[in-house]
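User: My instructor asked us to take a sequence, write out its structure as C-alpha cells, and then describe one feature of it. I'm not sure where to start. Here is the sequence I was given:
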Amino acid sequence: MRQIIYLIRHGHTSGTENNIMYGSTELPVTEDGLQEIRDMAARDVYPDPEDAVMYTSGMLRTEQTFEAIYGDAEHSVEPLLREIDFGRFEMMTIEEILADEYGKLWLTGEVENPEFEGGDTLDGFIARVNRGLKNIIENAKESALEKAIAVIHGGVMSYLMQDMFPDEKEDMWDWTPYPGCGYVIELKEGKALNWQPIGVPGGVGNPVKNNND
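Assistant: Let's start with the prediction itself. The C-alpha cells for your sequence are:
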C-alpha cells in the first residue's frame, strides 16, 4: 500500500527566536509566527486535509499551528510525538549549556546517548517518536486512507527523517526545517521511498536549518 505522510513543524516561538533549547516547555507560537503560518497557508503551501488522518503532538505550539492552517478541523493527538524533554537544560541558551560540564560534552557530541537529568534519554526519545510515527501510519492504513498529516516538532522531525533517510545528510540537525515548514514522505508497505520539502519562507528556496525545536 502506498502512503503519503506530511510532517509540519510548528511556527516560531520565543524559544526559536532567542536560540533557547526547549522541548517539554509549553511555549506558545508568537503572533509573528502565527502570521507567517497563515501567509504560507494562503499560498497553498500545506496539504489539503481532505481524505487524510490528521494529528498534532498535543502540545500548545502544535495545536496553535494546526489551527492557523486548518482552523477547527477534526484531528487526533499522538503524544508519543511530543518534543524531547531536556530536563535541567530546558529553557537554557546554547552559551549557558556550554558553560555546564555535562552540557558541553553533550553539545560537542562526546556523549553517545545523552541523559537529560529530569528529562529524556536520547535513545528513549528516538524509540518513542518512532513508535508515534508507526501509530500514525497504522491508523491511516486502518482508516483505508493513503494520507496522514502531522503538525509536530523540529527535533522529532530531525530524528525521524534521519532514521528514514540515513545517508542523505551529514548532520542529523540538517533535517530540522524552518518553523512552519516540513516534509512530505512517500512510503510503500511502510518503507520510506522519497521525500520533498513542504513550505519555505517567502515561497522560495529550501527549508532553512534551525537547531531549536
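For the description part of your assignment, you could build on this observation: The chain is about 35% helix and 20% strand. Try explaining in your own words what that tells you about the chain.
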